[in-house]
Amino acid sequence: MIEKRDIRALQKIVGSENVKDDRAHLLAYSYDATRERYEPELVLFPRSEEEVSQVLRYCNQHRIPVVPRGAGSGFTGGALPVKGGVVLALERHMNKIKEIDLKNMVAVVEPGVLNKELQRAVERHGLFYPPDPASQEYSTIGGNVAENAGGMRAAKYGITKDYVMALRAVLPDGSIIRAGKRTIKDVAGYNLAGILVGSEGTLAVITEITLKLIAKPRLSKTMMGIFPTVTQAMEAVYRSLAGGANPVAMEFLDQLTIRAVEEKFHKGLPTDAGAILISDIDGNVEAEIDYQIELLRHHFQENGASAIQIAKDQEEAANIWFARRNASQAITIYGSKKINEDVTVPRSELPRYLEEVYRIGERYGVKIPCFGHTGDGNVHTNVMVDGSDPAQVQRGYEAIEEIFKVTIELGGTLSGEHGIGLSKAPFMRMAFSDEELALFRRIKAAFDPNNILNPGKMGL
Amino acid sequence: MIEKRDIRALQKIVGSENVKDDRAHLLAYSYDATRERYEPELVLFPRSEEEVSQVLRYCNQHRIPVVPRGAGSGFTGGALPVKGGVVLALERHMNKIKEIDLKNMVAVVEPGVLNKELQRAVERHGLFYPPDPASQEYSTIGGNVAENAGGMRAAKYGITKDYVMALRAVLPDGSIIRAGKRTIKDVAGYNLAGILVGSEGTLAVITEITLKLIAKPRLSKTMMGIFPTVTQAMEAVYRSLAGGANPVAMEFLDQLTIRAVEEKFHKGLPTDAGAILISDIDGNVEAEIDYQIELLRHHFQENGASAIQIAKDQEEAANIWFARRNASQAITIYGSKKINEDVTVPRSELPRYLEEVYRIGERYGVKIPCFGHTGDGNVHTNVMVDGSDPAQVQRGYEAIEEIFKVTIELGGTLSGEHGIGLSKAPFMRMAFSDEELALFRRIKAAFDPNNILNPGKMGL
After folding, report:
1. Does the residue B82 lie in any domain?
2. Which of B127, B120, B289, B155 is closest to B219 using CA atoms?
């Protein structure tokens, strides 16, 4: 419980205008994209790393939980203060792009910078920051790093961890640590940045992030293939990737999703198709793009594509992407409530995974449309239920548990993009052994011996 | 001290033919590429993960140091048993390529597989494993992972950590842990693979490694530029990379190195040049290669290159690469003993770094030829001394210490490729704060509470 003297002490550190405990603030910082609610006792808006350090030192001494928060757009409750305490809101003041270093091709940012804002800023210099979670317009880089966010471009360009070159962070005892360098190669000391990425605010509060940038490709092209079955579509994916295709994105929609988009938007999609693949290719030279397109076309045809469309211009490309971009909205025809998971399986297992998912859907009497990233095996699996029918909602959650089991059996992971947070914490024992969970706890204690940082998350 | 009953217990685990304590074995496993010597008390050749687990459990219970070892080709003493105990030699039995999975484009290997052996095996399937440390013909993947090895192709393709998708490892208490998945995206639990990579055998014994593969580019081309000064060469590097050039390698030789190669091999190199840049470009399409070559040519010319050569065939390419490949041998004209370091600075700081290094060379009366990877700022800095003159050798080591100071001041790292091990341990306090070192120790204890795994390394 936070007391008056705690508030006074924290006001001294961050300034009283940056300490809020009114109803409006406690409510505003009580939820994230999960729509679950846990009110903090206090919201703090630190202005600097030094203030973060002092706040943490105080809270550590007084055993006050601290939950770092960016935009609160997470899907697993990572930013929810489930044990009360302080929400450390980094988006208000610690939101500067500190440097775009053209010579070393890195950007140095504070955690509260928005993903898209960074993308735009570096693109003005002809550079490119590839990670593009669907939340890119409003999620913060700090949150992206804490959750190791993915995105559509992962197949070619990787995910957040592949761009984090260095971090500054504050430990619960207030000490400021640096991890990594502005160099591709750095093998001195343990790879702290490696373990801080994806640690969901449980190990340290990240205060500065140095990100690798690459040169922005000059050209891109979009194509689509329509397949009788998911298995054929996936076969086309493996073959083209192993054959040298390097698409930025390689997205798929399954039959249920295709039908939903068609029913809702009447785009002329073939509702008897088993799967649609949508792919973006990028590069600097027309001939390279053509080469890639030909590779894909070849493997699509070899694997039974009934139609292939190559966008002639931006408008046609946007039209192809329409189905994928609106899939999430369209599938609400199957149920008012969506229980969606971002499980990921080795891409070779995608056909089997989908078969199992549909079987589970039948067993529980729910529709489970799937779409997502075939390039990296990340499937947005949407269990659609009638939100006003508690029995069906319950069945939906039971179906999810089955789906997690299948995922683990197929060598997959509970989460490809969203993290564990609160929502997936109950399933950690399904995915990890006792020894692995014990190791996670010892690592947590090595950083945060009093368990004040984002307590109650990740099933630890 | 290992006793007779320990030997008997360990013989039971791995079989008596796989336990050696004769002079020849103790000597053979007492050194690495540093040429320092520390004899183990026992050499074990485990045949499986299960045996590794049992050996560790026993040694942990009896507080016997265990040093995992691949080829023993490390440059910093990582595989030296400085506290005696057991060398766990993984190259003899645990050296299989277990799987090359074409659909997911991963290879699953035991730690004792040689780097080049893996490269060759995957290339037979049209795939590519890019990390290519200079030791690739004889170093093991396990050692590469433990040291997070780099190589020439890092500028475009990254280093070992960028290819490690999953690991299996054994903790000192014998528990077997899995980290990561056969998927690009996996954000469930802490990123254990992230911290195990580069941990130099101090946290766990790695027993299986799943590596990302990519498609093998079909074409490549080599070019060379000759520059009046290092600063101009480096300016050409920044500009071309930011402008979209994506060379596989972008190597440089400084004036001292150029002169040494010329004196030794008479290749017609311009001995008044300040620097030579050598670059490899790869891709799938001629037009893409041409585009890249033109970009480089443009930026080389804009930045004062006095000559540019583009190899017409393999023979010309080999001829261009001759100078770089033989640099290490050539510079022995400056002294019989080479004290070489693999420091890395942000590439923008390379010209200043080199200036400082030459100044240090003058001050200590030693020649310090430099060459290396401009793309990633990794400079092989070679302090050449007369090995028969103890005073000069001493001055050489003093110069190295100065060089480390400059490196840290310029935002660089003590090691870009070789790790800390024993050789650089004394300098850890220069690079890390007390708080950072304390955190390293707590992480070490979270994995290895009794400090049996490779004790005495990394300055911990």
Report:
1. yes
2. B289
Task: Write out the DSSP string of B270-309.
Answer: -TT-SEEEEEEEEESSHHHHHHHHHHHHHHHHHTT-SEEE
Write the secondary structure of B417-460 as one string of H (helix), E (strand) and C (coil): CCCCCCCCHHHHHHHCCHHHHHHHHHHHHHHCCCCCECCCCCCC
pLDDT, position A187: 86
The per-residue pLDDT for range A4-54, each reduced to its tens digit, is: 999 999 999 999 999 999 999 999 999 999 989 999 999 999 999 999 999
DSSP letter at A94 equals: S
Pairing of strands B86-89, B66-69: parallel
The pTM assigned to this predicted structure is 0.96
- A282 — pLDDT class (breaks 50, 70, 90): very high
Helix (H, G, I), strand (E, B) or coil at A386: coil
Residues in B touching A150 (Cβ below 8 Å): 185, 187
CA contacts within 13 A on the Cβ side of A126 = 12
Find the CATH number of the domain harbouring B51.
3.30.43.10
CATH of the domain at A427: 3.30.70.2740
Chain A CB contacts of B346 under 8 Å are 101, 103-104, 181-183
Task: Report the domain count for chain B.
Answer: 4
Specify the range with the lowest mean pLDDT, choosing from A115-119, A248-252, A373-377.
A373-377
Per-residue b or e along A11-20, where b marks 16 or more CB atoms closer than 10 Å to that residue's CB: eebbeeebbb
The dihedral formed by the CA atoms of A282, A288, A292 and A297, expressed in degrees to the nearest 10: 120
Across the range B90-103, mean pLDDT stands at 97
Give the gap in angstroms from C-alpha A15 to the nearest C-alpha of chain B.
Answer: 27
How far apart CA A6 and CA B333 sit, in angstroms, is 68
Residues of A in contact with B165 (CB under 8 A): none
Report yes or no on A141 lying in a domain. Answer: yes
What the block records as the tokens of A443 is: 């690592």
User: Would the pLDDT of B167 be above 90?
Assistant: yes
Which range marks the domain in which residue B10 is found? 4-89
Given B182, B215, B376, which is nearest A185 (Cβ)? B376
From residue B320, alpha-carbon distances to A66, A337, B236, B308 in Å are: 58, 64, 19, 11
pLDDT in tens, A59-83: 999 999 999 999 999 999 999 999 9
pLDDT tens digits along A388-424: 999 999 999 999 999 999 999 999 999 998 999 999 9
- CB-nearest to A190 from B191, B291, B443 is B443
For residue A236, give every residue at least 6 positions away whose Cβ sits within 8 Å of its Cβ, in sequence order, or none: A225, A227, A277, A296, A299, A300, A302, A303, A304, A305
> Residue type for A173, please?
D
Whether B460 maps to a domain, the answer reads no
Closest CA to A250 of A225, A231, A227, A232: A225
Query: What CATH number does the domain containing A228 carry?
Result: 3.30.70.2190
Contacts of B171 in chain A (CB under 8 A): 435, 439
